[in-house]
Amino acid sequence: MSVSGYAEVVDGPLAEFLQISRQIGGDVAEQARLVEDAFKAQQRFIQLAGESAQPTESDVAGLLKPTSEKIAAIQTYREKRRSAPHFNHLSAVSESIAALGWVAVSPAPAPYIKEMNDAGQFYTNRVLKDWKEKDKRHVEWVKAWVQTITDLQSFVKRHHTTGLVWAGKGAPKVPPPPPACPPPPPVDLEASGDAGQDRSALFAEINKGSDITKGLKKVTSEMQTHKNTALRQGPAPFKPVARSVPFNRPAEAASEVRPPSFIRDGKKWLIEYQKDRRDLVVDNAEMNNVVYLYRCQNTTVQVKGKINSITMDSCKKTSVVFDSLVSSMEFINCQSVEMQVLGKVPTISIDKTDGCQVYLSDDSLDVVIVSSKSSEMNVLVPKKDGDYTEHAVPEQFRTTITAGKTLQTEIVENKG
């Protein structure tokens, strides 16, 4: 039933979405081909789950790899075409395709799918606004895509309410790992005519005992790094590469340089790739406007007036100062960022961010701060003398099982 239920999603709204995408053509059709591959990869995974018992966590990661690779390809395709005429179409799919990651969510995957569907709503609304008077096919395209994700959510509610169900017996077939590199051939010392002489010389050196150090060169003070700072400029220490997480938005190459932009697109202010700027001001904005900062570095932005929300995405050493927000201030994938509110802000969201300074005003002391996967977060509360009191947001927690077999979580203070 689970397999047939997923087939209804693929053969129903998804098939209609693919057909309309081919009619629109161009980038929309090309991305739709990747979407089809992603759904087919998950369809094979669902069929495997219906035939097999639940494997180990490491085996599940290997089985999910085909789907996660297709999702990453869809998101990368959108990132490489930010100037495309159908960028809103590409973004709508890219933002919500992560709904296929429900197979790794437990115990409530259906709400996760709805969140991903809502994540693409901003761009689907843009498509409707731009094309509803020009070409009705784009309106049908939006309806088909939204219906695809909605039907996927209904499918999960019916068949996988608390998480993916492995209904079969026996272990699934996991793709074997690539073969290891062969070991280097052994060194044949006998092949050299001087092998005996080399070994004799080696043993003679070892048998010198303490005299073996007489040939070493003396290290003077000029050669010591703690006395000569010029010698400290060596290569940077090794840093292990972070493990990539499936169904995550792929990071752009660090070496990629794009021209900075500061544009207003309808209700959205786009501030992207700004670097070493301190004079950026968003003025004459309306209450339903949003400001989106992307990959800015060493930059300060001032937002005047009351607007809907501000989002800071993948920024580094960037600050934003604003009057008031109707909705929220969001930090995503940022490093060493700051915000200061002069008026009112209801909600602050901090996600996957390392280093965040939040300066509040007297009118914003009832703010709700939601943080996840973040570190070095500090909230600065104003005092009567105009100074601030700094409070650290907890990062460490302790969870125990209660007598009723529920979870109880409490903050663990780090006093070291």
Which descriptors would you attach to this protein?
Serine Threonine Protein Phosphatase 5, Tetratricopeptide repeat, 416 residues, 8 helices, 16 strands, 2 domains, Pectate Lyase C-like, seven-stranded mixed β-sheet, globular, alpha/beta
Short recap of the structure:
By secondary structure, this protein is an alpha/beta fold. The chain has helices at 2-24, 26-51, 57-79, 87-96, 109-119, 121-131, 136-159, 195-206, and strands at residues 261-265, 268-272, 275-282, 290-294, 297-307, 309-313, 316-325, 328-332, 335-341, 347-351, 354-359, 368-372, 375-382, 388-392, 397-401, 407-411.
Describe this structure in words.
By secondary structure, this protein is α/β, with parallel strands linked by helices. It has 2 domains: 2-159, Adenylate cyclase-associated CAP, N-terminal domain (Serine Threonine Protein Phosphatase 5, Tetratricopeptide repeat), CATH 1.25.40.330; 261-411, 3 Solenoid (Pectate Lyase C-like), CATH 2.160.20. The chain is built from 8 helices and 16 strands. Strand 15 (397-401) and strand 16 (407-411) form a beta hairpin. Helix 4 runs antiparallel to helix 6 (121-131) and helix 5 (109-119) runs antiparallel to helix 7 (136-159). It is globular. The chain starts with a helix and ends in a 5-residue tail after the last strand. Mean pLDDT is 81; it is low at 174-181 and 234-255.
